[in-house]
Design brief:
5-stranded antiparallel β-sheet; about 45% strand
Length: about 140
């Protein structure tokens, strides 16, 4: 009977340690602002940033769509995430691939990126805003 109780205790401790490790990993990340563009009516903003999670991760360019009065949270982009795919796409000064953003009106955002970038997130609708994507290459 005691071995089962010990096994259960070990399992609980292992799960707790895993949760703490995940929290510490996220806490070790930081966002560096590259560019912020407000919607024409000023209610929303698109924020381009580079997220750094330490030496084991590469540089990325990320985009979040936020209310005009919200600060950029310390989390991954809610709209777009891309890397240079190990140098296949050219990098901006921040190390991640170049991304251009512009609002066509209050509910439509245009996001342009190099077609050689590797994408891990690409939302087309978020918070009532339609996102149109275009690729470019030199």
């Amino acid at each position: 009977m005691y071995p089962k109780r010990n096994l259960l205790l070990l399992l609980i401790l292992a799960l707790a340690a895993g949760a703490v490790a995940c929290l510490n990993l996220a806490a070790g990340c930081g966002n560096d602002l590259v560019k912020e563009v407000r919607s024409p009516g000023g209610k929303m903003k698109a924020v381009v940033f580079q997220r750094d999670c330490g030496a084991t991760t590469g540089f990325s360019t990320q985009v979040s769509l936020l209310s005009f009065n919200k600060s950029l949270p310390n989390e991954s982009g809610n709209l777009f995430v891309a890397t240079t795919d190990h140098g296949s796409a050219p990098a901006g000064a921040w190390g991640g691939p170049i991304v251009e953003i512009s609002w066509t009106d209050d509910t439509n955002l245009l996001l342009r990126y190099d077609k050689r970038a590797s994408l891990s997130k690409r939302e087309e609708l978020l918070g009532g805003v339609n996102i149109r994507y275009e690729t470019f290459a030199p």
